[in-house]
Design a protein that fits this description.
Helix content: 40-55%
Distance between the termini: 62 Å
Largest sheet: 6 strands, mixed
Number of helices: 30
Mean pLDDT: 87
Strand content: 5-15%
Low-confidence stretches: 560-565
Shape: flat
Strand order of the largest sheet: 1-6-3-4-2-5
Amino acid sequence: MKAVDEKVGRFIGNSDTVFIIPPFQRNYSWDEEQCCELFDDILDSIKKDKSHYIGNIVYYVGENDRAGFNEYILVDGQQRITTILLLLCAIRSKLSAEEAKRLEKKFLINEDETDEKYRVKLKQTDNDLRVFEKIITNSVLSSEERENKLFKNYNYFIDRLADFDEETAVKFYNATANLDIVDLNLKIEKDLEAVQKIFEKINSTGKELSVADLIRNYLLISNNSDEQKRLYDNYWVKIENLYQDKEKISEFAKHYLITKRGIWAEEKKMYNTFKLYFDNTNISKEDILSEILKYSQYYNWFIDENCPDDKINIIMKELNVLKSDDMYSLLLILFDTLYENNKETLRKILDLLSDFMIRYRIVSPTNGSGDIRKTLFTLLSKITKNDITLDYDSILYELSNSPSPGGRFPDDEEFRNSLSKYVNTAYAKALLYKLEYKEVRNIEVDIRKVTVEHLMPQTLSDEWKEYLGGEAKASLIYNTYINNIGNLALLSRPLNSENSNDIWDNKKKNIQDAQFVLTNSIDKNCKWDDNAITNRCETITRLALRHIVGPLQRDRDFESMEVTEDFASGIYKANDINFKVTGRTIKSIIFENVPYTIRGWFELVAITCKVLYDLDKDKFTEILKQNKIHKSTFKYSYYFGNDPIICNEEKYLVSPYYLENANCYVESTLSANRAMYYALELIKEYGLLDKFKIEIE
């Protein structure tokens, strides 16, 4: 890095120089207020006969640099340089033809350059390029172009200079050229990581960059401005065009990162995690951009509900009503694998996921989102590591055997009980809509255009209270059944508005005209009370249990180690250890009758790794690389997912234990139970649980 005190005139006026604003930089954004401040500072410098400092210009030399020609790629200062050039254009209009030509040649145009790319001194981003070059070349702008900030600020300077005669204009011109800057050449050569870090640091003090901004810059930064533009035009512009709300790109990036790591990405750490992950892979920036573009199309289908496949789109709308954002990462993998190759399997799996979410939301096994994420991300991880076959039966099996109780697939009994109590109206809408579709096999109404009607209204009028048997009885029925599934029915929005909290005899007339079978099948002669609600609840529940797929019988324990027998000192086969070992002492691990002494629980995982590495190095390397043995936490933002137990870098471990034969580090700060758990998981990866024994006292 080289910093030099410099004058604006000498810096911009160097012959055969072009400044490149990278495509990842923001568009021109200065307002009249900032232009006014710059203009007044120059006037003040003339009065005081003292130059004025306007800040640093930070850049690096692009590799397109050639003999006698400099290409400066700007990292910071593009707003100031752009504004000064606009000011010089305005000053040009006040000078004699000869002086104007001299100014133009020195500061605005590389007159002898035949390559249009290098003709104008400052190469703007695509959004500002045309307007800026028209101002520089003194061309006529359209009425639309005159609304651009560049022209408005240029026009502001024209107005401020209106009363200047040529002598005053020349004095102002000289003062502008005499402005002080710090010319800061990063001199990074091929070290683009250094440029990115400097860019992040510089931009951390201004308007905060979004995650999408930072990721875009990380992927597009290059020594070659042509390569930057090619990647920007071929990928990033197309990505941005998919989103009306550009903030959605940052949300997409989170789900894309989850597909790579298999765990939740914290908002505050997301960019750093993204960069760490891809810095430690061999994936090219272009390959990342290509995949992001492809995945963005799928993500756009999810959030805008515009998938070209109508049947899939219906399910996507159901999932969105069920607030299934945590599932988007999994959906990206499913669409990427199946959409072009096997749509029928994809539809079946999506329908299953919708059933899972309906049951999960209505039963609500947990109040937090961590458990369902663990279920979904565990499934995602197994798919990406090819641990399971990507078909309907495998997905159903994995959902049925969730890692934690809070993320479980609710069974029929839980589902039935919840339907008879309280059902959130949004989730009731998804259930009733799906049952309608399954029953009649043809539903043309968009789920977004229907609403859920409380047949016994949410606000009981005096007439309703009397209808239900008086104040006390009405209150009891209301509190018991108001959100029971039997009291909820689909209606179109106009009907819902008409019905309001009308008395039943009036309300049921509209219900009979409803276009939904499950709504208009309500007995028009019935009295709408607790018995009617209970009867309809049983009908809906029976249909729900028939059509909304439930889990298989579990054949895998939740992820925990429970005591199943009294402990006794001795040697245990690894596949027999299903008890807690807290308070016990480990003596050795035995493989093929060879004992390996262990000094304490802290050493169990490391010694297990040593034995397994010597047995099959390639297998061990695969386990390490894929981070198959890891914690459920992600405190360290490890680039391959959850906090590792085995790692090539000690900084990701609490207490690293160096394993010399494998040249890696193993976590040693573990409870006895967790050490045993991870050791068994390692042995299980090798398929050798029946071959290992462990001696415990």
